[in-house]
Amino acid sequence: MCGIAGLAGMDARWHQTTVQAMGVSQHYRGPDGTMHAASPDGRAVLSMNTLLIVDPLAHPGPYLDRASGVVLAFNGEVYNWRQQAGAWGIPVGPGETDAHLVLRAWVKFGPSCLDGLDGMFALAVYDPRVGKLFLARDRLGEKPLYWRLDGGRLAFASEVTALTGYGPAPLVLRPEMLAIETPVGVDTPFQGIQLLAPATVLTFDVTTTSLDQHTWWRLEERQPFEGDYQVALADFSVVLAEQVPLRAPAGDFALLLSGGLDSALLAYLTRPPVCVTVRYPGQDRLDESAAAARIAADVGAELIVVEPGTADFATVLPHLVASLDYPMGNASVFSEYMAYRKIAALGLKVVLGGLGPDEFLMGYVRHALVLFGPEAVLKAGMESYRPLAAKLMHTAGQVLDPVEAVTRLVLRGPDPGHRIRALVAEAMGRAGGDLARALTLADLATAWRPLVMTSDKLAAAYALERRSPYLARKVVELSWRLPVGYKIAAPAAGKRILRDAARALGMPREVWDSRDKLGFASPVPAWLNGPLAAWADAHLHAALADAPAELRPLLMAGLQKGGHFDRTRMQALLAAIWFHNQPVSAAA
After folding, report:
1. Can you tell me whether residue 23 is helix, strand or coil?
2. Fewer CB within a 10 Å sphere, N or C end of the chain?
3. Domain residue spans in the chain?
4. What is the average pLDDT across 537-546?
């Protein structure tokens, strides 16, 4: 986990103090050094917050290739960098890391080198040979990167706060923040600031100030898998066993262990020295600590149990909100934050988590609802999901369009202009008629962004590098290619091939036969309707006094008591604290 920032333009050399301040504003992302460097022609200044993982003795970035003048600022990890160095014939010496390989590969191949990199990254490269700044982001958007164009200069940073400090950025309250709790696409709630899309290269010509963006990887271009289930299972098991351990660092690290299938399998494949789980006393339905304890003992790991309470929530919420940059919808955000805080207190630098299988192998109940219908899901023993299934209940004999079904299931508020429906339709239309693949693309277009963004931002707030081993390129691409029946065979049997692979790899029955999906869910919605109700109402009323018209519907909705799993009050509270903390210029 590092951070990058900088700007490019004809007069960039005169703005080194500005870039230095941008880097300092996100210093927590790289406690091993925040430095900046100007390109040899003075048309770009790059800053980098360095967290040393690969080699603790390596020199902090940015990095310069003296022969060409190319400058690189890099955030992330390339897991196959040593193999690629050999394949490309690029020397990497003692004390050098994946960043040095990326720099030399860019000098040699330009942006085409990205296809050879397997990892998570956001990078900035300035090449004086062509007078262009390049920004690039990894395939699935694990590492954030924001940018803005202003006065003939392009500025960029890992955090929005670094760019709002660069210049005024009035709030633009996107309607989708009410619809699905988070901005979508490349939008942010700040005028003129955009998020670079995943798997995208942005090119800025400093002479003409022209911009160009292109996508360098598309999941939907992978060809369908041809072979029976046993062949697929063998291939998938081998890929898991080979790829997942590569994402575990050589030294100490922690694993977020909920007790479910995804994190349990990670425990057996990576053998972490420390596992961390979150438990809420008195909340038996959310308590997976007994399963986590069995798994940790089996792999020889120390189990750390974090037990947050209402006082913790009230105390940490301002820092949690500030760490996110702006409100994002994620049911596990508080649990995840508390786990990261504990891991950092242990002196560790790397944490692993189980993102990925749910999206790519049909692990969510909403997938089963679309594929099999609400009646079949309820009859399969998932009666607790009746409120979700009710969104799809319709007149007998009426066929509900899959796009409409997915839209209903992801919406948490009004959808003015049907923007979310259009987004879902566009994503699902790229799946070539395969409904399971269409569901994956719909997830990537809607719910995926806040999951990866909160994981990165909350971990970065504590100088932790968050890794998601299931997002290895070979795992993702093979998962995508599989037929729907290999992913889910019945309404209550999602992630079929992952379960069978765990069994084939010799995992205990409690791992591959685990069914209930809890993750790091928390009782925060119940707290906000109970012991923290008055406290939450006070924050919401205070925000309503000055809130713009676009934000008021969410704040007003938050004043209504919701159900046990209703996140409206939580989302409204995040928005209230976020708005209250905005500078006057930003909120104008």
Report:
1. helix
2. C
3. 3-217, 221-359+448-512, 362-445, 524-580
4. 93
Sequence-ordered list of residues with C-beta below 8 angstroms from that of 75, at least 6 positions apart, any chain: 1, 2, 3, 4, 29, 48, 121, 122, 123, 143, 145, 158
Average pLDDT over residues 92-106: 93
Residue 369: closest CA among 343, 402, 339, 399: 402
d(CA 269, CA 254): 13
Task: Please determine, looking at this structure, whether the domain spanning 221-359+448-512 carries the CATH number 3.30.1300.10.
Answer: no
What letter would DSSP give residue 310? Answer: H
What number is the average pLDDT over the span 75-91? Answer: 96
Question: What letter represents residue 436's amino acid?
Answer: A
What token pair was written down for 484?
């729907």
Res 155: pLDDT: 98
Q: Are 113 and 136 in contact (CB under 8 A)?
A: no
Q: At what angle do helices 229-243 and 473-481 cross, to 10 degrees?
A: 160
Q: For residues 235 and 489, what is the distance between their CA atoms, to the nearest angstrom?
A: 19
Whole-angstrom Cα distance, residue 369 to residue 250?
41
CA–CA distance, 52 with 144 (Å, rounded to integer) = 19
The answer to whether residues 20 and 36 touch, using CB atoms and an 8 Å cutoff, is yes
Question: Mean of the pLDDT values across residues 419-431?
Answer: 96
Highest mean pLDDT among 40-54, 321-335, 375-389, 462-476: 462-476
pLDDT per residue over 505-530, tens digit each?
888 887 788 765 556 778 999 999 99
- Predicted confidence (pLDDT) per residue in 177-192, tens digit: 888 988 899 999 999 9
Rg over CA atoms, the chain: 23
Could you name the CATH architecture of 3-217? Answer: 4-Layer Sandwich (3.60)
pTM for this entry: 0.95
